[in-house]
Amino acid sequence: MKKEIANDPRSSISSVHSQQRRSTESWALQDSFIFYCLEQQGPLFTRPSLCLVAALVEANKPEDEANAIIDAIKKLLKDIGVFQNQCVYEDSEVKRIGREWLRSIGRRVRKLLSLCMCKRAITTESVFF
């Protein structure tokens, strides 16, 4: 029985079509599932996108319907990202740490600018003489 299925040309055509469709849907979802992380967090985790692609291919939906599902997933992931950013921006601890960082950077920048101004004054004086 298995040999008959393996030798059936329809199964190989179906397999090729399935692989092409999986590749197309994988590319369509790939950019939505890129979550940038720190180096210490480990490698990129791609299993969710692969599982969604497999589910879409197995559902055997028409291409336009599959594209609508992909677009809905992309929109959902974008909305989740916006919500997370908004929560981070509104967090009082994040704001406090950000202000401290800007103050420390500000001191360094002012110090560097004052050193540059001294050097500029020296070079401009030498030009006039």
TrEMBL record:
Which organism encodes this protein? Penicillium salamii
Specify the superkingdom.
Eukaryota
Protein name per Swiss-Prot or TrEMBL: Uncharacterized protein
